[in-house]
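hey so i finally got around to running the thing on that chain from the lab meeting. sorry it took forever, my laptop kept dying and i had to restart like 3 times. anyway pasting the input first so we r on the same page abt which one it is
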Amino acid sequence: MSSPVVIHGAGRMGRELLAHRRARSLPTAAFVDRRARELGTVDGVEVMEPAQAAARWGADVNVVSSIHNGFVSLVEAMDELSRCGLGRVTSIWDYCRETGWLPELPYWMEPGLDWVVLRESAAPARALLADEASVAVFDTQFALRAQGAYRALAPPDLTGEYVPTDLPLPRRPLRLVDCGAYDGDSIRAIVRSGWTIEDVIAYEPDPAQVAALGREVASLPSGTVVAAGTSDETGTRRFSGGLEMASRESADGSLLVAFERIDDRCLSFAPNYIKMDVEGAEAASLLGAKATIERWRPVLGISAYHLPQDLWTLLALIDQWKLGYRFYMRAHQYNGFGVVLYALPQ
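ok and heres what got predicted. didnt touch it at all, straight out
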């Protein structure tokens, strides 16, 4: 008789994993979650403290951790489960590799791709990185995608997202284009780091966040909130909103929201920094900003973790314009999230 399977984490990803197992008639014995007393049961499955599960099954249990976000270290969580006496503890990456399943929002994770071939495709972009720290981030993030090598990741820079202190950023008041501005979180973090934002055009397509963003922008000397997403074409698209930071363009989205080219609004704005965190639309948004980037040569801070190949294809896209940028890469969250490509004009 095979060992029971429990899912670590009873949040959204854990419930999605449970639904996948149920659809294939695979039994799940329990959830393991430190909020067990608060949750009780989730989707009809008992939620247990790790120590409870260890007392019931000991090492004779398979634990699949559903952690797939940037806010909690998966390695630390898995080690803690092992210390509690639980048996085989594996990551969601391992589960996806073994079963071929992918969650609704896999982000950087797709073990089934041909990573040997992709390593060759990625090599030219890797060679353009300007310092050893960037190469190390690139290599460990590639290993994570190809092999599920979470333990190879260095501790992330949790405080310097978009303005890392170890990069030669030109120190001047920012004229910022913030794409995927959410509720103003990046604006707050940049100001908290000691930078001055002189003016901002803040794009946010999720109606649920626009009011909070407006309040944040109102605290600056000057700024404009644009209730739209960014892309390479202007128009109206379907959008899945109300999902916090995961809100995104989606063919089955229930909302219709505006999208526009950055060039149509920002060409005369003279930005010196463009930040993008747009849930996989970074390449299209860059194409829609090409004239602005060519004219003003702003610093670029581009999220490079929403799609597996964003790690190198976004760099290659900017480099092909031959604008004299130097490229850096830093990780600002755990588990392959918060990877940012920095392009600095020479």
